[in-house]
Design brief:
It is elongated, with a radius of gyration of 19 Å. Helix 5 (about 75-85) crosses helix 6 (about 85-95). Helices cover about 65% and strands about 0% of the residues. The protein folds into 2 domains: about 1-30; about 35-95, 434 Repressor (Amino-terminal Domain) (Orthogonal Bundle). The chain has helices at about 5-20, 35-45, 50-55, 60-65, 75-85, 85-95.
Length: about 100
């Protein structure tokens, strides 16, 4: 077996382990903490419609997050964490874009 195929095979095994929630040597993931989406939005002083539009979020998703039906993931969760920490700075950055 060539080195390339062996490397691909190892990568696939690691991906499968990661997907199953098992630790993978050398892989470190950053998992942003969950946030209280409604509290974050309220700190900005925006309505659900305004908040969703301002940050390019789905209004439906925002409503589900606020009700607790679903939890934000990925990039949306990262954005919400940034807004939670520095809401006015993020609002200024978005308005100046």
């Amino acid at each position: 077996m060539s080195k390339e195929i062996g490397s691909i095979k190892q990568g696939l095994r690691q991906a499968i382990r990661h997907e199953k929630g098992k630790r993978v040597a050398g892989l470190r993931l950053h998992r942003p903490p969950q946030v209280d989406v409604k509290a974050v939005r309220e700190r900005t002083g925006l309505t659900q419609e305004q908040f969703a539009a301002k940050f390019a979020l789905s209004l439906g998703a925002l409503r589900h997050w606020e009700r607790g039906d679903r939890k934000p993931r990925g990039t949306a969760l990262v954005l919400l964490n940034v807004i939670a920490r520095k809401p006015q700075a993020v609002l200024r950055a978005v308005e100046n874009a």
